[in-house]
Amino acid sequence: MTTDQDELAELRQRVDCRTVLERGGWEMDGKESSRRAVKYRQGAGRIVIVTHEGKGWFDPLDDKRGDVIALAQHVWGGTLGHARKNLRPLAGIAPKLVPLRQGADVVPIEGDKLWHQARQLRQGSQAWAYLTEQRGLPSATIERALQVGALREGICGTLWAQHQGVSGQITGWEMRGPSYKGFSKGGTKTLFWLGHPPVANRLVVTESAIDAMSLASIENWPDGTLYASTGGGFGPSTEGALRGSLPQHAKLVAATDRGIGGELLATRLEELAGCCGVAFDRLLPESEDWNEQIKGGQR
Fold first, then answer.
1. Where in the chain is the domain with CATH 3.90.580.10?
2. In terms of CB atoms within 10 Å, which end of the chain has fewer, N or C?
3. Second CATH level (architecture) for the domain 111-295
4. What is the sign, positive or negative, of the torsion defined by CA atoms of 33, 38, 41, 47?
5. pLDDT tens, residue by residue, 76-133
């Protein structure tokens, strides 16, 4: 006789997490997806990344993760019984993998124009207070980022952290605030930079601009080190920016977060280092991420 546990085991084997998300109304973000990690979005603030060829998933904005059973509860709510009922019709159905359709109102941004029109971040402003008081960044670090034009201030005191492509064009910006986390609408994630790629002998990649500035502060800005942020993505534009800016003599360092998301990105960076013929290293924060470490006073 088949037990509930037997059925759960079969559903884990036969139902693809990508199919669950498609049936739940989520859309695949083709720009930010790869064969190993497929990103799905629902609305402006919900993200799920599917790994292990459809057998696992995690939420990069939260600690939620698991198998297809946990995903069914994440998407539709309810008990294990509800999860089984929702998953039964999906057994054996392959995902369509249709990328997110860009709406007519989503157009590429005029990055350079909008950036230079944006408000300068200044000492005493809302964004400055957010970075120093809530994020624990030293004023000297913010000043250093401002000197290279990497930061601006958006509405409601939101931090803007600039992303640039290989040729130096502004492609968008990370947006962070006390109650907001996102990326500029119509923009493309490439890399947030602090340093000079041509002369760098060590390129350190983090998952956010705030983490990049935190790690730079922890390491006291050593000569020859370039700090970069992917902004939480690793699409073709980000990979291209890294390939185009990585000096042959440099070491690529994955300074990603603790957890499955950080490990996944570190693996991809190690593969990239191998393809580019450069040395690779992995650097782990003592806390969950580099900003948590600096806020905790750990150097």
1. 4-90
2. N
3. 3-Layer(aba) Sandwich (3.40)
4. negative
5. 988 998 999 999 889 888 888 877 655 444 455 678 888 988 899 999 999 999 999 9
